[in-house]
Amino acid sequence: AEARWSRGRAPLGWLSTSGPSIVRADTGEAIVLRGVSWFGMETETLAPHGLWVRSLDDLLDCVVACGFNLIRLPFCNAAVRPGAKPTSIAAHCNPGLIGLGCLELLDLIV
After folding, report:
1. What InterPro entries does the record tag this protein with (predicted)?
2. Among 7, 6, 89, which residue's Cα sits nearest to residue 41?
3. How many CB atoms lie within 10 A of CB 35?
4. Which structural domain range is residue 38 located in?
5. How far apart are the first and last CA of the chain?
6. Which of 39, 60, 43 minimizes the C-alpha distance to 109?
7. Total structural domains in the chain?
8. I want to staple 60 with a disulfide (CB 3.0 to 4.6 A). Which of 5, 20, 30, 76 is the partner?
9. pTM, rounded to two decimals
């Protein structure tokens, strides 16, 4: 599934450094990383916080609207075990996420 929040923005792609700057590897354009931490996958729910009340697209739209271009998404070892399934995801907000494994959910976010 393609994330709606990417609206016309090119993905950052590979990054590199040039002196003190972080730059796009392909163009050399300097960028500033502005990050936010989104907890939840490291807890017993194995799901990013808030997916029981808002859709993934809405939450990612909010991240972009606040000016962030980087998400720190901590997770625990249990999330990468075979068969691990996230909980605390509401079907009415996120019907496409129901039944996904933790790594499949992580793929959609990343």
Report:
1. GH
2. 89
3. 11
4. 4-109
5. 12
6. 60
7. 1
8. 5
9. 0.80
CA 62 to centroid of chain Cα atoms = 12
Per-residue confidence at 2, pLDDT binned at 50, 70, 90?
A: very low
For residue range 87-104, list pLDDT tens digits in order: 999 999 999 999 999 999
Q: What is the pLDDT of residues 17-56, one digit of tens each?
A: 999 999 999 999 999 999 999 999 999 999 999 999 999 9
Report the pLDDT value the prediction gives residue 9, as an integer from 0 to 100.
Answer: 54
Output the CA–CA distances (angstroms, integers) from residue 65 to 5, 41, 57, 70, 89, in the order listed: 10, 23, 12, 12, 23
* CA separation for the pair 2, 16 (Å, rounded): 26
Q: Under a CB-based contact definition with an 8 Å cutoff, are residues 76 and 42 in contact?
A: yes
Report the sign of the C-alpha dihedral through residues 70, 72, 75, 80, in that order: positive
Residue 66 identity (one-letter amino acid): C
Per DSSP, the three-state class of 30 is strand
